[in-house]
Backbone:
């Protein structure tokens, strides 16, 4: 298959996995194509990760239980079982970040993977530098304390206890639905939040009936945020899949190439 030339990042660029001495993190690669495993292994080891591999789904699940990886890179098309099932099986007992790599381009494939419990999705052919960056972002989020009464994304602050939202110190007034949508996005900052997830979070189990409403409320929310000075590119639409609020703690500039 065609692969984008690996863009191995220089050591010392950014992030904790750029310092081999500090890094004892393990990543599990579940992928049946040896060429891709070799490519990823070289890039990851260069950045100080310890790498374990599996070329089948079942072997990957076993390896996840044995090596307790700090992150998993998973291909969806595996010889013995579908990657979606691998995600579900690992999620039964592990919260380790799962980054999916797949040739499946349709939004439905992304939605299924994310809803099954994957944390992020990078299409093949992929850029190795992007995979490493997304892996770092997932690790950083994992290290965040689970819950705070106040959450932030750049100039945006949400005081969950007081139900108060400010942008650069100026309070903005949101409807209950806009507030619930923003809360879901902020709590999952940096991750793609699927439409299905938002619909269930905000409208409950029958949320799918409100799919058309979702877009309208998101538009209103985006207008209120940008009207208060929030950079509109930080709330990114993944066409047909969902939405992602850029992690401002890690953003070094404009959002990545998908934006
Ligand atoms: Ca495959």
Residues:
């Amino acid at each position: 298959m065609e692969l984008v030339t690996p863009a191995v990042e220089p050591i010392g660029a950014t992030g904790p996995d750029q310092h081999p001495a500090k890094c004892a993190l393990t990543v599990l690669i579940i992928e049946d194509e040896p060429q891709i495993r070799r490519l990823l292994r070289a890039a990851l080891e260069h950045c100080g990760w310890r790498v374990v591999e599996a070329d089948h789904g079942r072997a990957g699940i076993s390896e996840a239980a044995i090596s307790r990886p700090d992150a998993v890179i998973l291909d969806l098309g595996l010889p013995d079982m579908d990657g979606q099932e691998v995600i579900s099986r690992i999620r039964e007992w592990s919260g380790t970040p799962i980054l999916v790599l797949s040739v499946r381009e349709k939004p439905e494939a992304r939605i299924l993977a994310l809803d099954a419990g994957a944390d992020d999705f990078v299409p093949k052919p992929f850029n190795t530098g992007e995979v490493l960056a997304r892996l770092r972002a997932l690790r950083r989020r994992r290290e965040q304390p689970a819950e705070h009464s106040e959450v932030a994304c750049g100039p945006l602050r949400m005081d969950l206890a007081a139900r108060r939202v400010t942008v650069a110190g100026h309070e903005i007034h949101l409807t209950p639905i806009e507030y619930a949508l923003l809360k879901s996005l902020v709590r999952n900052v940096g991750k793609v939040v699927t439409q299905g997830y938002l619909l269930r979070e905000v409208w409950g189990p029958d949320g799918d009936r409100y799919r058309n409403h979702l877009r309208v409320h998101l538009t209103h929310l985006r207008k209120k945020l940008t009207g208060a000075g929030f950079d509109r590119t930080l709330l990114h639409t993944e066409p047909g899949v969902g939405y992602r609020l850029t992690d401002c703690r890690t953003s070094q500039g404009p959002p990545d190439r998908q934006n």
